[in-house]
Amino acid sequence: MSGHGGGRRKKHEEHEEHENHERWLVSYADMVTLLMVLFVVMFAMSAVDERKYAELKDGLAAGFGNSDALLSGNESILDYAGTAPVSAIAPQVNTDDMTPEQQQAVADAVQQAQALQNQRSWDEATAEAERLEEVRRDLLGALDSRGLGGDVTTSYDHRGLVVSLVSRHVVFEANLATLSARGQQVVDAIAPVLARLEDDLQVDGHTNQVPVKPKYYDTDWDLAAARAVTVLRRLEERHGLPTERLSVAGYGSTRPLIDPDEPGSQEVNKRVDIVVLTGLAPQDAALLPEAAASLDELAGLAGEGLEDPATEDGRQGRRGADRGTETDTDTTDEEGAQAAALRDADPEEKR
Fold first, then answer.
1. What angle do CA 351, 190, 192 make, to 5 degrees?
2. Residue 250 pairs with which residues in a beta bridge?
3. Segment (H or E) for 183
4. What is the pLDDT of residue 76?
5. Alpha-carbon span 220 to 230, nearest angstrom
6. For residue range 143-185, what is the model confidence (pLDDT) as tens digits?
7. CA 10 to chain centre
8. Residue-level pLDDT at 329
9. CA atoms of 137 and 193, how far apart (whole Å)
């Protein structure tokens, strides 16, 4: 056993840890970052937009776990998405670097493509006009078979075929939305033809332009809508037309069929229109009245010199001849007296 003290190991002396004097930089960096975020948010909110402000509020709430929504990300990033129609994107052709011959070739190609599109739209409108013309003939034939050939007029607009119940007799009693006996016969005559179609139908109610308040309704709008609903219900309840095909609209006195200043116009403008709605695209449907007029002109040229009474009656019904000069041998004395009473009544009784 050695007595030398030099053999003993010295105890390890642990040095005192030096204090880090740069720890404040971490807190400072966090504070600077938060200040930057604050100023960015304030800058973004400098132009106040309620919609964007609400989105920011919801986003911050979701980020801090205070959102009550189960799912996120269901909002559109577009401003007022879905309210503006999507227009076709036309290719932009840069012709600056082309020769005059190339530029003319491009212009001719674009013009030819536009002409082709116009021709396609015209062909679609013409085909639809031919189909609706067959429907019109069937409707007039059904009315002729019951002696009611002069009780409607037909026309075309961008919506489709318009069948107007503008009888020389009383269709609706004055100030009422109740169909007269004659009006019921007209609706019952055309209902089977309409039931065979697959097109949607819109029933429009109209009043005349007599400047008096309806006796039993608050406004012309109420009376017009009630008359349209009366016809719609008869088509649905009595003749079984599907409800999903039917809709109703009331126009009051805003859409006269003929000039209100013309004699007898008040009886004609007080009407209900049944519109056979077309399924054409809007740009094609806009050509429908012109296409129908073209077909009518061609039919008129082909039928010159013919004296078919049924054809002549149909043309008169379509053109909407003056009701004040027409007569009907099938009219009963009661109906004639009713029509005369309506013509001679005071304005308040002619709604």
1. 140
2. 205
3. helix 181-196
4. 56
5. 15
6. 999 988 888 889 999 999 999 987 556 678 778 888 888 889 9
7. 99
8. 35
9. 10
- Tokens for 47, please give them: 């132009």
The type of residue at 92 is Q
Answer whether residue 214 shows pLDDT above 90.
no
pLDDT digits (tens, 9 = 90+) for 63-115: 666 555 555 555 555 555 555 555 555 556 666 677 888 778 877 777 878 78
Tokens encoding 134: 């067959």
What DSSP character marks residue 179? B
pLDDT at position 226: 93
- Here the tokens at position 241 are 């037309």
Burial class (CB within 10 angstroms; exposed 0-12, middle 13-18, buried 19+) of 58: middle
Helical residues (DSSP H) of 243-332, grouped into ranges: 265-269, 282-285, 288-302, 309-319
Does the pLDDT value for residue 207 go beyond 80? yes
List, for residues 256-277, the tens digit of each pLDDT value.
Answer: 888 888 887 777 788 899 999 9
Both tokens of 274, joined, read 């049944």
Q: Which residues make beta-bridge pairs with 156?
A: 161
Identify residue 229 by its one-letter amino acid code. V
DSSP secondary structure of 238-258: IT---GGGEEEEE-TTSS-SS
Q: Is the dihedral of CA 87, 287, 117, 97 positive or negative?
A: negative
Gap between the terminal Cα atoms of the chain: 137
